[in-house]
């Protein structure tokens, strides 16, 4: 873990050195292409910064890189003609994104890491007897919405993706021990999570022109139950809303 954080700082330093070096060269009057200091390059830089900080372990970093790169090519190299191809390209990119994303189950990987020191026979026994498909949720919403109620008393976590859509997940009747992990990807979309007021909420979500809004009452959050809902993922031009009854 410490090694990953060290690498993140190193790459962040490299990125800052590159930006500072280019600015220094320009300050001496050396001709520098204008697009290097455009808002498109700023967006690409933000994406690379996020990826470097997390060791490129999560896929959300490439989205601002993709958006910035598309506008950069359109404005500086295609004379504004990219719009003729934009929707096919968007669909192709989203298709690739979800194909690669489908092979990842971060909430199950977290459970596997937790049991990494156990004997193989023990892991197999616990995974078969203690966990089932109903203990996980996997939801994808594109240009649409969905509502789901989770009843599992052994809930482990889930994976939510919304693109120009929304999802509402009701966890008020669910239960779990220790920690459940949600990975949320919201691109021009959002997710609403209804959770019991006494659950602790932690987040490592990367937000770009978006946010996370915990609307639970502060007074209710003081009675901790030892249950933690951990949010991971990326929100771009979207949001995650946390509510409780």
Number of strands: 11
- What summary fits the major beta sheet? 6 strands, parallel
How many helices does DSSP assign?
6
Helix content: 25-40%
* Run of helices and strands: HHHHHHEEEEEEEEEEE
> Low-confidence segments, ≥5 residues, pLDDT <50?
1-5, 109-130
Structural class: alpha/beta
Overall mean pLDDT stands at 76
Radius of gyration based on Cα positions: 21 Å
Number of domains: 2
* Outline type: elongated
What proportion strand?
25-35%
The span between the termini is 37 Å
Task: Provide a descriptive summary of the structure in words.
- This protein is of the alpha/beta class.
- The chain has 2 domains: 101 residues; 117 residues, no CATH class.
- Helix content is 38%, strand content 26%.
- The radius of gyration is 21 Å and the shape is elongated.
- The relative contact order is 0.10.
Q: Key terms for this structure?
A:
5-stranded parallel β-sheet; single chain; 38% helix; 6-stranded parallel β-sheet; 11 strands; alpha/beta; disordered N terminus; 245 residues
Compose a concise summary of this entry.
The chain is an alpha/beta fold.
Topology:
Blueprint: H1 2-27, H2 39-53, H3 62-76, H4 86-102, H5 106-114, H6 120-129, E1 136-142, E2 145-149, E3 157-163, E4 166-170, E5 179-187, E6 190-194, E7 200-203, E8 206-208, E9 211-214, E10 228-236, E11 239-243
Parallel strand pairs: 1-3, 2-4, 3-5, 4-6, 5-10, 6-11, 7-10, 8-10, 9-11
